[in-house]
What does this fold into?
Amino acid sequence: MFYDLASFGNYICKKRKDMSYTQKDIANLAFISTDALRRIENGNVLPNQITLEALSLVFKEDLNLALLSFRFDNQDKFFEVKKRLNIR
It folds into this structure.
């Protein structure tokens, strides 16, 4: 599966800020590292299932379902976005 990780990361970042939490606050509540949360918010990684479940508890939302809304419908769209990002 291919996901728009940058948009998912922005979604997580916005939810965190709407709750008036810092990255450190969320990381402590979810028992993950601040670096892991930073990488997720920056769209650098696809969070693993354990991390998604921990963050879901903190944000009180099923982030597995949220992540699915950021899935590319086809591989071509993924490579199109990837190619544009590499040009910059």
The helical segments are 5-18, 23-30, 34-41, 49-59, 63-68, 75-87. The chain has a mean pLDDT of 91. Residues 6 and 43 are 4 Å apart (CA to CA). The two ends are 24 Å apart (CA to CA).
